[in-house]
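I'd like us to work through together how a protein chain folds, taking it slowly. We need material for that, and I hope you will provide a protein of your own picking. Go ahead whenever you are ready, and we will take it from there:
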Amino acid sequence: MQTVAAQPFCEVFLHLGDVIVVHRRSAQHLVPAGDLIGAGAFRANIALIYALRGNFDRAWSLADQALEELRGSDMIEYGKALCKHGKIAHLAERPEAGAEALNEAESVAKSRGATGDSELGQAIGRLKALMEEQTHAE
Protein backbone atom coordinates (compact mmCIF):
# COMPACT_ATOMS: atom_id res chain seq x y z
CA MET A 1 0.00 0.00 0.00
CA GLN A 2 2.83 2.42 0.82
CA THR A 3 4.40 1.86 -2.62
CA VAL A 4 1.14 2.74 -4.39
CA ALA A 5 0.74 5.95 -2.40
CA ALA A 6 4.35 6.94 -3.05
CA GLN A 7 4.21 6.26 -6.79
CA PRO A 8 2.63 9.59 -7.89
CA PHE A 9 5.17 11.48 -5.79
CA CYS A 10 8.00 9.53 -7.42
CA GLU A 11 6.64 10.36 -10.86
CA VAL A 12 6.53 14.05 -9.98
CA PHE A 13 10.03 13.83 -8.51
CA LEU A 14 11.34 12.17 -11.67
CA HIS A 15 9.59 14.75 -13.83
CA LEU A 16 11.15 17.52 -11.75
CA GLY A 17 14.45 15.72 -12.26
CA ASP A 18 13.94 15.84 -16.02
CA VAL A 19 13.38 19.58 -15.83
CA ILE A 20 16.41 20.13 -13.62
CA VAL A 21 18.67 17.84 -15.64
CA VAL A 22 17.62 19.45 -18.93
CA HIS A 23 18.07 22.94 -17.50
CA ARG A 24 21.15 22.32 -15.34
CA ARG A 25 22.56 25.79 -15.82
CA SER A 26 19.39 27.59 -14.78
CA ALA A 27 18.81 25.11 -11.93
CA GLN A 28 22.14 26.11 -10.40
CA HIS A 29 20.61 29.52 -9.71
CA LEU A 30 18.06 27.94 -7.36
CA VAL A 31 20.75 27.96 -4.68
CA PRO A 32 22.34 31.32 -3.79
CA ALA A 33 26.04 31.64 -4.58
CA GLY A 34 28.21 30.66 -1.65
CA ASP A 35 25.50 28.54 0.01
CA LEU A 36 27.48 25.31 0.36
CA ILE A 37 24.82 23.73 2.55
CA GLY A 38 22.03 24.45 0.07
CA ALA A 39 24.23 23.41 -2.85
CA GLY A 40 25.21 20.17 -1.15
CA ALA A 41 21.63 19.28 -0.25
CA PHE A 42 20.46 20.16 -3.76
CA ARG A 43 23.26 18.11 -5.32
CA ALA A 44 22.38 15.08 -3.15
CA ASN A 45 18.79 15.23 -4.42
CA ILE A 46 19.92 15.51 -8.03
CA ALA A 47 22.27 12.55 -7.49
CA LEU A 48 19.32 10.46 -6.36
CA ILE A 49 17.36 11.49 -9.46
CA TYR A 50 20.24 10.35 -11.69
CA ALA A 51 20.35 7.02 -9.82
CA LEU A 52 16.59 6.55 -10.24
CA ARG A 53 17.13 7.06 -13.96
CA GLY A 54 19.95 4.49 -14.02
CA ASN A 55 22.86 6.92 -14.55
CA PHE A 56 25.00 5.69 -11.67
CA ASP A 57 28.28 7.25 -12.79
CA ARG A 58 26.75 10.73 -12.63
CA ALA A 59 24.85 9.85 -9.44
CA TRP A 60 28.01 8.74 -7.60
CA SER A 61 29.90 11.80 -8.77
CA LEU A 62 27.22 14.21 -7.56
CA ALA A 63 26.64 12.31 -4.31
CA ASP A 64 30.34 12.37 -3.47
CA GLN A 65 30.52 16.07 -4.27
CA ALA A 66 27.47 16.71 -2.06
CA LEU A 67 29.06 14.87 0.85
CA GLU A 68 32.25 16.91 0.46
CA GLU A 69 30.27 20.17 0.48
CA LEU A 70 28.30 19.19 3.57
CA ARG A 71 30.99 17.44 5.63
CA GLY A 72 31.93 19.72 8.47
CA SER A 73 29.49 22.49 7.57
CA ASP A 74 26.08 21.04 8.48
CA MET A 75 26.21 17.57 9.95
CA ILE A 76 22.44 17.03 9.90
CA GLU A 77 22.31 17.75 6.15
CA TYR A 78 25.42 15.62 5.79
CA GLY A 79 23.61 12.74 7.50
CA LYS A 80 20.59 13.18 5.22
CA ALA A 81 22.91 13.18 2.18
CA LEU A 82 24.46 9.97 3.50
CA CYS A 83 20.98 8.44 3.49
CA LYS A 84 20.55 9.46 -0.15
CA HIS A 85 23.98 7.95 -0.82
CA GLY A 86 22.69 4.74 0.76
CA LYS A 87 19.62 4.79 -1.50
CA ILE A 88 21.87 5.22 -4.52
CA ALA A 89 23.92 2.24 -3.33
CA HIS A 90 20.70 0.23 -3.00
CA LEU A 91 19.62 1.12 -6.53
CA ALA A 92 23.11 0.29 -7.83
CA GLU A 93 22.98 -3.07 -6.00
CA ARG A 94 25.97 -2.21 -3.80
CA PRO A 95 24.77 -3.26 -0.33
CA GLU A 96 28.18 -2.77 1.29
CA ALA A 97 28.25 0.89 0.27
CA GLY A 98 24.68 1.26 1.50
CA ALA A 99 25.53 -0.27 4.88
CA GLU A 100 28.55 2.02 5.20
CA ALA A 101 26.43 5.10 4.46
CA LEU A 102 23.78 3.94 6.95
CA ASN A 103 26.36 3.35 9.69
CA GLU A 104 27.88 6.79 9.18
CA ALA A 105 24.44 8.45 9.12
CA GLU A 106 23.53 6.71 12.39
CA SER A 107 26.79 7.92 13.92
CA VAL A 108 26.01 11.49 12.85
CA ALA A 109 22.49 11.23 14.27
CA LYS A 110 23.81 9.94 17.58
CA SER A 111 26.50 12.64 17.84
CA ARG A 112 23.93 15.38 17.09
CA GLY A 113 21.19 13.95 19.31
CA ALA A 114 18.82 13.49 16.37
CA THR A 115 15.78 11.46 17.35
CA GLY A 116 13.79 9.04 15.22
CA ASP A 117 11.20 11.79 14.70
CA SER A 118 13.72 14.24 13.24
CA GLU A 119 14.24 14.57 9.48
CA LEU A 120 17.55 12.73 9.80
CA GLY A 121 16.02 10.03 11.99
CA GLN A 122 13.21 9.50 9.50
CA ALA A 123 15.67 9.34 6.58
CA ILE A 124 17.67 6.72 8.47
CA GLY A 125 14.49 4.75 9.17
CA ARG A 126 13.53 4.77 5.48
CA LEU A 127 17.02 3.65 4.44
CA LYS A 128 16.99 0.84 7.02
CA ALA A 129 13.60 -0.35 5.77
CA LEU A 130 14.85 -0.29 2.18
CA MET A 131 17.95 -2.27 3.07
CA GLU A 132 15.97 -4.79 5.13
CA GLU A 133 13.60 -5.22 2.19
CA GLN A 134 16.61 -5.99 -0.03
CA THR A 135 18.00 -8.47 2.53
CA HIS A 136 14.71 -10.36 2.73
CA ALA A 137 14.43 -10.49 -1.05
CA GLU A 138 17.78 -12.27 -1.35
